[in-house]
Amino acid sequence: MTERVIAVVTAGLTTPSSSRLLADQLAAAVRDELSGRGVEARIEVIEVRDHAHDLTNNLLTGFPSTELREVLDTVAAADALIAVTPTFSASYSGLFKMFFDVLDDKALAGKPVLLGATGGTERHSLVLDFALRPLFAYLKALPVATGVYAASTDWGTGATNLRTRITQAATELVAALNHEPAHQTDPYENPTPFEDLLNS
C-alpha cells in the first residue's frame, strides 16, 4: 500500500488546546480520505510549544538543536502539511510564526497545505485569508481553497457545520496531493422544491 506522510504543525499554548483538537480532526479526515483511496497515511504531529526554547535559541544563534533539526526535516520531507494556529490580535500567534521563521524558506515550495485557526469568536475567521495565506504564499506553499476556522461555538451546536468544512478541506488536500482538480460542492445542485419552501 502506498504511504503518504502528513506533517501536522499545531501552535496551541495549553494542554489540551482547541488548536490541537482541530489539528487532530483535520488529520483524521485526511487519513480517512486517503484510506478510502487505498493509500496509507503516516501522521507526524508537531506541537510547537514543545520546541519553544529551541526555537528561541535558533533565532538567537542561527543554529537549530538536534531535536529541532529533526522536526524541521520532518516538515520539509512530508508530502503535505496541516498548519493550525490560535488567533492572537487578529493574526497567527508569535510561536506559530517563529516556527516558520526558522524553517528553510524553500522547504514548503510546491507543498500542499491545509490551513486552520482557532479563536473565541467568529469575527476573527478572516485570519485565514489576511494572515495565514500571505505567509504561506511567501513560502511558495500551495494552500487548498478551503481553510478551517473554529470558534468556541463550533465545538458545541456548530459541530456539524465544522465537520462539513473539515471534510471539504481534507478532500481538497488529498486532491492536491494527487494533482487532481478539487471537487467543489454546488449549493444549487439539489435545490429545495418550491412546494417545500411554501410549506416551511
From TrEMBL:
Gene3D superfamilies reported in the protein's UniProt record: 3.40.50.360
InterPro entries from the UniProt entry: CE1759_FMN_reduct, Flavoprotein-like_sf, FMN_Rdtase-like_dom, NAD(P)H-dep_FMN_reductase
Chain spans, region Disordered: 180-200
Assigned keywords, A-Z: Flavoprotein, FMN, Oxidoreductase
Signal sequence bounds: none
A Pfam family hit: FMN_red
Listed GO MF terms: oxidoreductase activity
Segments forming domain NADPH-dependent FMN reductase-like: 6-155
Alphabetical list of PANTHER family matching this protein: FMN REDUCTASE (NADPH)
UniProt protein name: FMN reductase
Classification lineage: Bacteria, Bacillati, Actinomycetota, Actinomycetes, Propionibacteriales
